[in-house]
Amino acid sequence: MQLNGSDIIMECLLEQGVDTVFGYPGGAVLNIYDALYKYSDKIRHIETAHEQGAAHAADGYARATGRVGVCIATSGPGATNLVTGIATAYMDSVPVVAITGNVTRNLLGLDSFQEVDITGVTMPITKHNYIVKDVNQLADTIREAFRLANEGRKGPVLVDIPKDISAQMCEYTPKKPDAPKVFPLPQEFRFEKALELLQKAERPFLYTGGGVISSGASEEVAQLAEKLDAPVASSLMCQGGFDQANPRYMGMLGMHGTKTAALALQNCDLFVAVGTRFSDRVTCNADLFAQHCPVIQIDIDPAEFNKNIEVDVKLKGDAKAIVAELLRRLPQKENWEWMNRIHQWQKKYPLVQQPGREGTVTPQQVLETLDRLTDGKAILATEVGQHQMWAAQFYRFRSPRQFISSGGLGTMGFGLGAALGAQVGLPEKQVVNIAGDGSFHMNCNELSTLSKYGIPVIELVFNNQVLGMVRQWQKLFYGGRFSQTTLEKKTNYEMLAEAFGVKAMTISSPEEVEPVLKAALETQGPVLINCHIDPDCNVLPMVPAGASAEDPILEM
Amino acid sequence: MENNHPEKDYILSVLAENRAGVLLRISGLFSRRCYNIKSIVAAQTADASRSEILIVVTGDDRIIKQVKRQLEKLVDIVQVTVLDWENSVVREHILLKVARTKENSEALVSIANTFHAGVLSATDTSMLVELTGDPRTLDSFVELYQPYGIQKILRTGTMAVEA
Questions:
Q1: Which one of A13, A71, A200, A477 is CB 3.0 to 4.6 Å from A58, fit for a cystine?
Q2: A470, β-bridge pairs
Q3: Furthest-apart CA pair in chain A: how many Å?
């Protein structure tokens, strides 16, 4: 049938099962928005306050639901406003398709109004990108974009569409998406080598990364931990990928990992990494990381092998399939002595947060109360900074896709957009965005999106009047010279929230934590909680720059 | 990560879809991942929908594997082969303009003859010669003309094909 380019875009989105998109209209996407108007009963469009919010929302939607997130922006500034969101998704391998409009083809390259070479700009931060210059290729390009975004190591793909292409008529033939690609298992000799190491190990360390979640391998990994009789640590990207209520769980490893995980790293005789890329935040000093023991790495992206650390056995492919194969061939192991040592360390070195001053609220209290009140089932998004680490440390994530956080890029301003995307994708879940007062000022405009659509996210702001994470570094390494980290903002959070149409609550003392959280959870619609904490609450343990991941400091 | 591997030059043959921006994607990857390109040559293949890009990279064995795996992730790239120097024919082309006087003219021609190089033109003050050969031969060629005063050198990147 003959359709115009914009209708073809809509049809292609429907082919892919898309029912929700996030975006912001503008001149170059007028045709596309006209089609969205026409298709509004099939595709829900959430209009954010800013394109960056739309990109983060598509990302949060994808992380929470496991489906590809879609965002739409106009040419020029609309497109560049997506950039931080696209880079965030790229660093954390999140499947997002970004659709941008551009000026008509005859105006391309002439510095036309709102023209920007967005494919040039996003080349380093997308898996791939396209500019569609022939309407006959539009449908296949969009199909290809979805396939690429979701295949192998996932990531964002951008499709740039000049305005005349979105108006041109063209023959459209519906097509069902191809079945997902099945990745072959690694070669037999690699399995044999891995199995030999796994069987020999008496003190194995199982380390899980974001790949466990994207591959849907949580169940298999949990079984592997049992069969190996191994303790487990998870990266920031894998919070909930392994049930944190399981006694095997040691916490995170690396810069803000637990002492138990650090001691286990120091003492293990085999390190097994699943779906993780040994980021510098985990290895700390890569030259000192797991030097004394063999390392097995399972990853779908072979470029991650020997990139940051040298590994002994590389198992390339889908984590779920590989771990299932290992399970099939591995006998049950018993390492009670090793597990006893782990449990002793866990007892000796629990995560305990010292309040900055007596009688002040600690984030630990808030997060543990939230955990209890939500039965560990809420979805937590975060911004970036101290509050992000506290959320990872003190909420016990039970299942995958519960923790939505910018790990690789570390994007302040990510959380609120991501939280609203997650909530739109999973309306029956309780979504809470954990924020700091610094990050809050980067995206508070999206409160207006929460109220406009009645998206019942709880925005929980840990308000310490400082940029706590940077301040913590200044305390340790810059002689306490707090350059630009004392915020002294005059913002009235409660009034600001109310002005955006969001109900506001306040926590000022430890006694208020539980009743206020309860009240917020019972409220229909969005809530902001302004939670006052002490500026000298630190994130600990901490591995200082250049030190070994085996030696975190516990006090400062 | 500690680096105990010796650095040397590797030639990568990259087969890619002949689409706009492919070279940009490749060179962008090299620059952002801090790999060193020594030379790059792109040409259409017998199949017009494909192009072959030959890249000389300086690095150690580990880096080359990284480069190869990263290149293979680019959607437009079909195949990446690290060529074996020993079993490859490696060629570059050079255009060299050297200062000419009445006294040195004969010597200049004699160098060209030694290399079977072509003399393209000569004026009262300069002589233009050309040579195709492996990079080392070209280096010697340049070396021999050096004392006479080289006015300009244009040298293509390295092409190579496994024999």
A1: A71
A2: none
A3: 73
